[in-house]
Protein: General stress protein 26
Organism: Paenibacillus typhae
Amino acid sequence: MSTLNNSYQEAVETVRKLIKGIDTAMFTTISPEGLVSRPMKTQEVEFDGDLWFLTKKDTSKFDEILHDPRVNVVYADKSYVSIRGVAKIVNDVAKKKEYWNPGYEAFLKTSYDDPEVILIQVHAEAAEYWKSGNLAEKASYMFKRITNQDTEHSNLNQTVELD
């Protein structure tokens, strides 16, 4: 794995391209018992360093974020992206309305202006990703890994700093 020293904008663009079109992520919080992951739908906005999620206050993730705002969000499709960040509870009716759609009304059984509905804003600090690459690239990478050769310059697994 290597860490890129890209500019902030290049790092954001890399992550944006990798997660574009993946609407469900595994959202991990820290509970008193340990780590807890659950699938959540990401809001359909261009990634700019922040991720947005809608939920209700009567969920464990609400209390977990209040207790410890460190979270991890994982996307998996053709590539795998793990985003480490800090979550913040946002209760902005205009922003909730902006992200609201009829699917939420059915799923949450309420409307965007319900005071129990909240937004979770995740400010990304870093992202590690694994590109699927072509078969030859993957085979070469895995061979180098198992034979303890340098994989530092491979682009299949990278970490980008976002903060």
User: Anything to note?
Assistant: The domain at 2-161 is CATH 2.30.110.10 (Pnp Oxidase; Chain A).
